[in-house]
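Subject: Predicted fold for GyrI-like small molecule binding domain-containing protein, 74 residues

User T.R. writes:
Posting the sequence so we have a shared reference for the thread.
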Amino acid sequence: METDSGCRYVRRAQAGQAPSIGPLRSPDEPAWPVMEEFMAEHGLVANGPHHEIYLSALDDPAPRTVLRQPVRPA
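User M.O. replies:
I've generated the structure tokens; pasting them so everyone works from the same file.
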């Protein structure tokens, strides 16, 4: 399963993940609402703490990150 937003279910890891560009702690960060909507549409719920995989330097003004949320069926 994958959406145009880049969210997808990673079966092997049992996680949902989404790409993100920009500060993660920003209230305008759009990836989490997209991830939550994706999980709800596919009958998934969070199953543990999320992970942030940094693809660029932490001091980059627009860091590239993959957000990964462990999930399980609802």
